[in-house]
Amino acid sequence: MSLILISEQLLNGLQFGLMLFLIAAGLTLVFGIMDIMNLAHGSLYMAGAYVAAETMQRTGSFTAAIVVAVAVTALVGIALEILILRKLVTRDHLAQVLGTYAVILIANDVVKMIWGPTPVMLNMPALLSGPVEILPDFLYPAFRLMIIAVGLVMALALYAFVTKTRAGVLVRAGASNRQMATLMGVRVPILFLGVFTLGAALAALAGALLGPITAVQIGMGEDILILVLVCIVIGGIGSIRGAFVGALLVGMVDTAGRAFLPMLLRNVFPADVASSVGPTIAAISIYVLMAVVLVFRPSGLFPARG
Predict the structure, then answer these.
(1) Is the pLDDT assigned to residue 56 strictly greater than 60?
(2) What's the number of CA atoms in the CB half-sphere (13 Å) around residue 87?
(3) Is the dihedral of CA 149, 154, 159, 161 positive or negative?
(4) pLDDT at 102
(5) What is the pTM of this model?
(6) Contacts of residue 291, Cβ cutoff 8 Å, sequence gap at least 6
(7) How far is 42 from 46, CA to CA, in rounded Å?
(8) pLDDT value of position 129
């Protein structure tokens, strides 16, 4: 197992973890502040990918695709919060799960009506389609490096927003103790709307960035939502720092497991068995990690609520 292969998979895990963080950050704040289990968050990720693909086909500009995807999905998030989630905020979690699951079904049908049932192509920009030589004999895709750079910049910007601005203080106060924040004069409906819009925009950004290296298809939001929920549980509900750490752990474990476990299992099992069993064990390892964390830290690694 060469050092170059290990380095490549570590970068892949970092890239995947940062994209999970963009999705998880919005969802953990929505759940932490609004106390709403929003299963439709993955549909916002899907919307970002589809809008980016459509914009890319019409304009040929990947930058325009990202900007339009984020803007359109943010508007969709505003409408979703005002029309649906604001009505669900006073209901129990079962009603919230059922209501947001209905949004998933509606979103999938709307996408099918507009783009059809087959996957849609989202091409990466030509300037970033080739590799970059990071070290001698170590080439890495330029597009994935761009994703890592954008993910790190957004993580730092979100951290600065939450910790250094007055709006961020209100967000943290709402995540830690929503009732106390209300009593202190925080305009909760506006806070809810702002947090949900921010979460929708971050999910759309992740969808637009991951679209060229994953399939832009119906149901893509539900697949990644499961991993995002694991990130939030590991990190702690309502915690940006927890979402970041949890996403990186999940991204690294998932990527390393899928890359290295089949090779290790070939020393024990036939190649065909190792190739099929390895990814399965890698997928299971994520939930094992979550179970281990919950045994020792039931509220997650960095819970927002004390």
Answers:
(1) yes
(2) 9
(3) positive
(4) 92
(5) 0.88
(6) none
(7) 6
(8) 80
